[in-house]
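Quarterly update from the structural biology core.
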Amino acid sequence: MNARRDYRNNRAALFDGIEEGGIRASASYSSHEIDEHDNERAVDGLQDRVILLKRLSGDINEEVDSHNRMLDRMGNDMDSSRGVLSGTMDRFKMVFETKSSRRVFTLVASFVVIFLVIYYLTR
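Predicted structure, tokenized:
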């Protein structure tokens, strides 16, 4: 919530005093009578806004770089996990291929029987 308020404050500071037609001029001056002092003040205001934009763009760049590094690490971790999982699956396939189907059936049936016995004893 605080970041949203800072964003609004930065936005208000950035666009304060700017209308669709440009910088607001005082009502007492016509477009030809703006003196050098008002021009300097307007230039200083624009320079401050440019500095603010530069700082904001630098912050955005740092944030994007940190997110890219995080995504790269996540991708590398996913690749290593995929390798470990495929190795485990290959070992399971090898175990089930070397055992006869009768032994596997006996093993599974014994686990089911033990589970049922424990279930009825605790009930």
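The beta strands are 18-19, 22-23.
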